[in-house]
Amino acid sequence: MRTILAHAGDGKFPTTPVVVAVMKNIGFLNFGHWSAAPQSQVQTASDALLQSIDLAVAAEEVGADGAYFRVHHFAQQLASPFPLLAAIGAKTSRIEIGTGVIDMRYENPLYMTEDAGAADLIAGGRLQLGISRGSPEQVIDGFRYFGYEPPEGDHAEMARQHTAIFLQQLEGKGFAQPNPRPMFPNPPGLLRLEPHSPGLRDRIWWGAGSRATAVWTAEQGMNLMSSTLLTEDTGVPFHQLQAEQIQMFRDAWTAAGHQREPRVSVSRSIFPIVSSMDRAYFGDESRSQDQVGNLEGGRARFGKTYAGEIDQLVKDLAEDEAIAAADTVLIAVPNQLGVDYNTQIIENIVRYVAPELGWR
């Protein structure tokens, strides 16, 4: 649910507009780094995977609503997401499980349909898959090593083509001609990919880095996942530019005539300062500001980190227009600090910050 406007008055003659705070889904976003550095509590790939499962279980126990994972290839970070999502689905019962995001330039959309369907069924229909064109990678054109060659060198278009096939397959319609002499009996008609998970098509999100891409996302009938950077800069604060992106998405969604209500998530780095350890790690971030830089040859605006004691943190977050416009807030966690510390961050947000903002 998202923030809405109401009016104070007697019901006949509305007067002052009032912001009515409504509940939000609160999840964490884990980039899944591991490092052999002495200060890292995530030393190996095994640590990253197993601790990701443990963090999802712990986050569910402290009242969070979502466990989301970044996907990066050729890096010491989480990559193949579906075994991890399935494992989390088997060990939890309520929390949403998702990605933020899968780079569709690397994906076989038919195989991905099978993997996603299986993981979603194991989780009881709790998958929320964020997909996108991806971000700058560790290697040059890494998707070519996976066997994909973009038409006319347009890798963004290739990602969209893979996405179109993926979304079509998630609808569960038959398309393949059955063998007249199969090993096992076939149902009548054309065959679809199995296992099929009904409803998963409505739980696909696109990671949009610009306002124009947000409009395209709405036209495709996908939910909007917006991160802490936008690949454009108009000179206004990041949260206002992102709020504009969200509004353009919602307007385009309405114009497209989709029947369901879309969902919108934003990602934020949020660190409540409630202990000396918090202050040692993140006290300096209380002075964080937006940053503007170059990304892939163009200007980009990066959102600031939110860190501070509870009263100040609540005040700062209440002024974030994009958070107000979204129904889901994903908290980027520093996973190398370990499960216990990250669980405490999530719990502090759920217990102390969220009620003050009307998210709970």
TrEMBL record:
One of its GO terms (cellular component) is cytosol. Residues 31-275 form the Luciferase-like domain. Gene3D superfamilies: Luciferase-like domain. The keyword Oxidoreductase applies. It comes from the Bacteria. GO terms for molecular function: monooxygenase activity; oxidoreductase activity, acting on paired donors, with incorporation or reduction of molecular oxygen. It holds the Pfam family Bac_luciferase. The keyword Oxidoreductase applies. Keywords: Monooxygenase, Oxidoreductase. InterPro entries: Bact_Lucif_Oxidored, Luciferase-like_dom, Luciferase-like_sf. This is Alkanesulfonate monooxygenase SsuD/methylene tetrahydromethanopterin reductase-like flavin-dependent oxidoreductase (Luciferase family).
